[in-house]
Design brief:
Structural class: alpha/beta
Order of helices and strands: EEEHEEHEHHHHEHEHEEHH
Largest sheet: 6 strands, mixed
Distance between the termini: 41 Å
Number of strands: 10
Radius of gyration: 18 Å
Bound molecules: adenosine-5'-triphosphate
Strand content: 15-25%
Length: 256
Amino acid sequence: MPEQPLLEVKGLSKSFGGIRAVDDLNLSVQDGEFIGLIGPNGAGKTTVFNLLSGTIKPTAGHIAVGGERLEGQGAEEFAARGVARTFQNIRLFKHLTVFENVLAGMHGTSDRQLWRNLVQGRLFRTQEERLRERAAELLETFGLSRHADELSVHLSYGDQRRLEIVRALATFPKLLLLDEPAAGMNPAEGRQLVELLGQIKRTQKLTFVLIEHDMEVVMELCDRIRVLDYGKSLFEGTPEEVRRSPAVREAYLGGE
Ligand code: ATP
């Protein structure tokens, strides 16, 4: 019997007035997969992330995480089931330090009891230590340790982007939605990020969905790529299949 997917989306639609931003999307993601979500500007990618993280509610359709139906629930419920995300536009707490930003991210942890304790200021010393250790480890992995006590507003752009990912990872997610993590990075920073994400993919039991316009990044990291166009699913395949698809070239790559 096939394994139950970590994420299962059926007939998912979202309309804004007359605009059908997401139109009857079906998507199944297994544990440990790295899925790319691509498509031209306005194709509906960010709307899909908003739906998958409970930021907005669907007009129609089902979203199940770990077999549990969540459509209609809010962002807290999605986070509590292990869904974390980053945003296209960086959303850090600018006047908290780098370390505090990561701890703040832990308020969205998928560990419900831990989250309640955090919010109610009832953390046991061991739990607090565990969180601080996790935060320190993540900052180390992403090369941000030396900035731990600086205000996040003082970080370089590339470091702020990395901190966004650290903050999402700090929630102990099962499913991480990355919205253009390499946007605005210089080529060296972009390369470094791809290597880091590749390393996380190899070493941690984590499932990713990635929106990214840089096709090299998508092709290198993703096991499967879904192509959206005008809210509809246009194609799904391996990076190689996507590269060879005439329909994708036509819609997305400008028929090169
Ligand atoms: P990009 O690559 O430019 O970020 P995208 O693929 O992420 O684009 P979305 O941002 O999801 O696309 O937008 C899909 C469509 O839905 C667009 O036509 C957009 O204008 C519309 N849209 C998105 N959010 C809203 C909203 N809150 N209100 C009205 N229309 C919206």
